[in-house]
Amino acid sequence: MTRINVTVDGVSYSDEVEPRTLLVQYLRETLGKTGTVIGCDTSNCGACTVHLDGTSVKSCNVLAVQADGHDVSTIEGLATEGQLHPMQQAFHECHALQCGYCTPGMIMQACDLLKENPDPSEQEIREGLEGNLCRCTGYHNIVKAVQQAASAMREDAQAPAGSAVPAGGPEAPEPVPAGVGAAGPDIPPGAGGRVGDGSSGGPSGDLSSGSSSEGARA
Ligand code: FES
Ligand code: FES
Fold first, then answer.
1. Which pLDDT tens digit goes with each residue over 11-26?
2. Are 182 and 35 a contacting pair, CB within 8 Å?
3. Which candidate, 163, 182, 183, places its Cα nearest to that of 84?
4. Are 56 and 49 in contact (CB under 8 A)?
5. Residue 42's Cα: distance from chain center in Å?
6. Cα(19) to centroid of ligand 2, in Å?
7. Which of the 8 DSSP states describes residue 176?
8. Mean pLDDT of the chain
């Protein structure tokens, strides 16, 4: 076993992990962060995408020990103070999800894309998301959502300090649909891959069970 110290969604954790443990397994099974999901386990689908030191990575393709000393952000840390991130809000408003299984990874990848390119063309969005597979939506509304989020985020960036209105307006947000927020989607039986088969910690499992985290507010 190897001890790692890692910050996840702003919280510091120190845990013993096996050298072979994947980052996605550590997030889900040790920390209970099941908002990050496993779709293929072979770095094809992008469902497990998180940010490592601000850059998107497929967390099934990174060992937990490689995150030692680094900063990880997941879909669960995107909303702040109960306010959806503009990308989450746009996915909600543009109906950019159906089953929602690809959504956490898609949103994390889209956020990374906009960091590099705040005003991408449709083609650039499609190319930027080509590592994230969605088998429900046909991608059309996903592209629309990224365009809407990009526009909202550019407006926020241009607004005078303290005057930015959150994307979606100043009113309280509607309840977060499955997949857009932190809890992750409900997975129908047979939804594919290793989802909910117990080997990777099912999304409906007890989030506290099995956790050896020694996390503390940073
Ligand atoms: Fe990581 Fe599919 S689960 S890319
Ligand atoms: Fe993308 Fe179902 S909404 S896989």
1. 999 999 999 999 999 9
2. yes
3. 182
4. yes
5. 18
6. 32
7. P
8. 82
The per-residue pLDDT for 159 is 81
- Rounded CA separation 27/115 (Å): 24
Give the pLDDT of residue 9.
Answer: 98
Pick the atom of ligand 2 nearest to 99's CA.
Answer: 2
44 C-alpha to center of ligand 1: Å?
5
Least confident of 68-77, 82-91, 113-122, 200-209: 200-209
Q: Tokens 């503390």, residue?
A: 216
Q: Residue 88: CB within 6 Å of ligand 2?
A: no
SS (H, E, C) 90-141: HHHHCCCCCCCCCHHHHHHHHHHHHHHCCCCCHHHHHHHCCCCCCCCCCCHH
- Backbone angles phi and psi of 132, in degrees to 5: -120, 120
Strands of the sheet with 49-52, listed across from one edge: 55-58, 49-52, 71-73, 2-8, 11-17, 216-217
Q: Kindly report the pTM of this predicted structure.
A: 0.77
Q: Which domains does the chain carry?
A: 1-77 (3.10.20.30), 79-158 (1.10.150.120)
CB 97 within 8 A of CB 136: yes
